[in-house]
Please model this.
Amino acid sequence: MTLNRSACLAALLALCALAQDPSPYGPIKIAPIKAPPPIAPRPMAPPGAKPLADADVAAPKPSAPGAPRCDRCEDLPRLMNELKEQEWLRDKFWSYTRFSDYPYSASDVATLYCKVQCAMNEWMGKAPCPPGKCAGKAADKGESGASDDGAAPEMGTDPDTCQVVMYVKGKDGKRKKVPFNRAEKEKHDCPAVVDYLLAHENAHVKTCQALKKAGKSSLYTNPEFVALDEVKAYEAGIKSLERAINALAKKCNKQGTRVKYNLPDDFKVTPESLSSTRDEAQRIADELRKFQQQQGRQP
Model:
């Protein structure tokens, strides 16, 4: 094919003119084709930085005999990995809220949990979910978060009673709900891990109680509301885990960590959080963006 220099030059000048002419609708954001990459490992606070918040709390308690430990200096990397996973899950659920820059969508709550679980499996290097795994009834496997590879939540909040429960396997091999028992839970997890899991569930308990009081429990079928409630719960758990890490780091003369959050402490997940009015939704989004900018989460 023969190229015409004049034609090529004219086309190039036209493209330059287009690039310099701003869109009348403001900056255009193009949603990524692929899911955002996993978050980077949480950086430690730099030496000489301002004393870490909550660093003066007591160091993690020793574990029960035979249970995993998280009170020794050598346990810091494991706690940091726990923190990284919790932040990743927080950010993934955040991407299903209207406050995300590039929000994803889920047709129902079962699909939401299925998509998050499949994304996490891939992030952790496990076999990807088969096509159609999160479509329609295929996504509904009973307990939220359950997956074919055996991954399923060990704790949860019963939406009927607003009580924290544990999921255990019965003699028939099926999972069943039992009341939360800390002594029993600490046979399998160290106290710092139980603390952050309980902080997570207690955040769900508050939402559950508020919805029941307002007669709005039907919002548990709204995937965006559930995603936002998960963000709030993950951040409650992350705060607990951050405190434990910083306390242990201080004990070990190591650098701690400082987490950046999506939601302020006083943010409540309510029906108004998903206001149907555009102005109200924009007001909430602007307030959250300002909060995140103060922490350096947004440019």
Summary: The chain has seven helices and three strands. The mean pLDDT is 76.
